[in-house]
Amino acid sequence: MKRIFLIVLDSVGIGEMPDAALYGDAGSNTLSAASKSMYFSMSNMRKLGFFNIEGVNIGEREAAPAGSFARMKELSKGKDTTIGHWEIAGVVSDAPLPTYPQGFPKSVIGEFKKKTGRGVLCNKPYSGTEVIKDYGEEHLNTGDLIVYTSADSVFQIAAHEKIVPVETLYDYCRTAREILKGEHGVGRVIARPFAGETGRFYRTKNRHDFSLEPPGITMLDQLKEEGYDVISVGKIVDIFAERGITEFVRTAGNEEGMEKTLEYMEKDFEGLCFINLVDFDMLYGHRNDVDGYAKALTYFDQQVPKLLARMREEDVLMITADHGCDPSTVSTDHSREYTPLLMVGKSIPSGKDFGTREGFCDIAATVLSLFGLKPKCQGESIFHN
Asked: Of 3.60.140.10, 3.30.420.40, 1.10.10.10, 3.40.720.10, which CATH number belongs to 3-96+213-370?
């Protein structure tokens, strides 16, 4: 009974790509930045071969790595979560998803106001915690929705749970999702409910993402079609608009994500368990918190022995990332970086360096090949070149 556990360390990039300057990311290196913190320790990942990956120069290399490894180059035009995950799953994007550094156009906001019957506040890029601090009281007084974006391709709607019930907010997001197609097809519409009193507002755990569907066949679609289990842990189910998923559990952060992953490792299934650990990006990269980022990496490293201890005879563990988000740069945006790939399991050769791969999509082809399937998506299997 073959099981593959594919873990995405959200935003753990390992150094600028050759075209990083075109994205304003020259010099970015998320892993290197975090490694300079006194709180950084990844001895277990080092044993798997993490420090042996091409371009990773943060510590002593492992003489006899337990896993195989590669450096992954992004083929898609972009550096966001949606495009990164789509490419990991075998869909390469030829154009970046639209972003709105000046806010959304009047045509979009006008249609949204008309269909929801509510006014709109903000409509510009903003920090999610700062926007409720600055607009929360006006929202309470007027009932107008707080609409904002970021450097990502997102349309975010914040509303107090006492003013707009969570399910109603989700309906407003579905309305926005219907509007935001074609030219304005942002990657995600995100519900950002919050609670609390003026001066003490806080975001609740009821966030929900409404994503575009991938524009091509993914490894998830193919695995599901072939009768395999496709289990989502974290926001994977939202990134793929629930397509190709047979079972899912949403999580509130890395700790719960690891707890759920370890629980699935005790269960019988055949197929893929696809996990996103979001805290690296959401809590630390976007907030330029180097020490917090380092602590999150150290926490994950401490979980690695638990993962390895639960692996069965045919299991394969794969660890990668979707982009960078260097917490040491002035920017709080994602960064255009290479990503790591670590693979371990009894069917995986030890200490094999697969160099730099020409696309995240090679992960999809590799996963499918491990199940004996010829990929219908993009990418080449690492093991069949």
From this structure: 3.40.720.10
Query: What are the tens digits of pLDDT across the range 65-101?
Result: 999 999 999 999 999 999 999 999 999 999 889 999 9
Q: Domain extents for the chain?
A: 3-96+213-370, 106-211
- φ, ψ (nearest 5 deg) of residue 12: -80, 75
Using DSSP, state whether 263 is helix, strand or coil.
Answer: helix
How many Å apart are CA 235 and CA 229, to the nearest integer? 17
Q: Name residue 115's amino acid.
A: K
Q: How far is CA 192 from CA 50, 165, 169, 314, 369, in A?
A: 35, 12, 9, 40, 39
Q: Which CATH architecture has domain 106-211?
A: 2-Layer Sandwich (3.30)
385: pLDDT confidence band, cut at 50, 70 and 90? low
User: CA-CA distance, 131 to 80, in Å (whole number)?
Assistant: 21
Q: Find the angle CA(39)-CA(130)-CA(102) to the nearest 5 degrees.
A: 115
DSSP letter for each residue of 315-382: -EEEEE-S-B--TTSS--S-B-B-EEEEEESTTSPTT-EEEEES-THHHHHHHHHHTT---SSS---T
* 293 membership: H or E segment, kind and range: helix 290-309
Helix 290-309 × helix 254-264 angle, to 10°: 10
Can you list the alpha helix ranges (DSSP code H) found in 155-235? 166-179, 219-225
What pLDDT score does 151 carry?
82
Q: State how far the alpha carbon of 35 is from the alpha carbons of 30, 31, 40, 293, in Å.
A: 9, 6, 5, 9
| Region 285-311 average pLDDT | 97
Q: In this predicted structure, what is the pLDDT of residue 327?
A: 98
Q: Could you read off the pLDDT of 29-69 as tens digits, one per residue?
A: 999 999 999 999 999 999 999 999 999 999 899 999 999 99
